[in-house]
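User: Reviewer 2 asked us to show a designed sequence for the structure in our supplementary figure. I'm pasting the structure tokens here. Could you produce the per-position amino acids so we can include them in the response letter?
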């Protein structure tokens, strides 16, 4: 089986690849490794290669050809492709996209990276730079291949690793990839979802009742619809159910529908216009949930 694995910076791809290799004997194709080898062939650093790639797309084409050639030569083997674009270039591949809460990503990478490109002076700088690099990478691939790397429609599984160990992430991917019916699955950490409505809708009592109702209905995991604005996820209704999920420190919720900002919601409203929460409401939400997002979307006033 081919598994194409990409994800936001800090989402844990390296540790995950090691588990697939060590526990299941998967071969690992890493675009990062190919990039380093290519830079060595050219006699330049990977940082210099990245700089050149911003304006000269021939470097991306060369690396992606190596990816396609490898896939074609190894068809039928068990391989994880740790690559931004394997989902786009390879056929018959299970496509996985990993999410991560920006603050958690910063906690994971701050002080732990060795390359010049990934060295940060503070946690706050790490968080800001990771988000900036995430957006720049998506813009670059959009220009090179006219694709949106962060469009959920491109993937079979969208999985948030904010509260997961690498082992838990690994097990979920294997479980979902082995299902006979290949319906898309979207799992998000409750503390990586922003409220859309104003604070007068929040009720801890109602939250507890909603969660109890979900669990009594034999639901393994609470389900709700979300709105995606840029790379940020917001609630569509069910703030109180999300509040309860945070209250019991639930690791994941399942999204039965993810609306993009220009889509029309069931209530007839454009998705982006549905979001009314202000920074005051977000702060109230943080107080009720006993955590801080630390990173706030630009559309929050």
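Assistant: Here is a per-position design you can include in the supplement:
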């Amino acid at each position: 089986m081919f598994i194409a694995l990409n994800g936001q910076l800090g989402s844990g791809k390296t540790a995950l690849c090691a588990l697939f290799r060590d526990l299941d004997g998967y071969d690992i194709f890493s675009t990062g490794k190919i990039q380093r080898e290519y830079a060595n062939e050219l006699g330049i650093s990977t940082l210099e290669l990245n700089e050149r790639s911003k304006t000269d797309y021939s470097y991306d084409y060369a690396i992606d050809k190596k990816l396609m050639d490898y896939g074609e030569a190894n068809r039928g083997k068990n391989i994880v492709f740790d690559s931004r674009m394997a989902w786009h270039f390879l056929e018959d591949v299970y496509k996985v996209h990993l999410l991560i809460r920006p603050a958690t990503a910063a906690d994971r990478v701050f002080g732990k990276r060795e390359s010049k490109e990934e060295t940060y002076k503070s946690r706050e700088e790490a968080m800001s730079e990771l988000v900036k690099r995430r957006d720049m990478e998506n813009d670059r691939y959009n220009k090179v291949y006219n694709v949106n790397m962060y469009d959920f429609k491109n993937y079979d599984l969208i999985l948030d690793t904010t509260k997961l160990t690498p082992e838990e992430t690994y097990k979920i991917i294997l479980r979902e990839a082995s299902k006979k019916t290949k319906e898309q699955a979207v799992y998000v950490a409750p503390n990586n979802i922003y409220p859309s409505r104003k604070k007068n809708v929040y009720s801890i009592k109602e939250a507890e009742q909603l969660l109890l109702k979900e669990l009594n209905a034999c639901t393994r995991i609470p389900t709700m619809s979300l709105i995606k604005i840029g790379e940020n996820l917001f609630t569509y209704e069910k703030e109180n159910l999300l509040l309860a999920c945070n209250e019991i420190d639930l690791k994941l919720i399942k999204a039965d529908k993810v609306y993009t900002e220009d889509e029309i919601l069931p209530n007839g409203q454009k998705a982006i216009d549905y979001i009314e929460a202000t920074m005051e409401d977000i702060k109230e939400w943080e107080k009720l949930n006993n955590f801080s997002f630390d990173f706030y979307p630009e559309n929050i006033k």
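For the response letter, you might also mention the following. The radius of gyration is 20 Å. The first strand starts at residue 2 and ends at 7.
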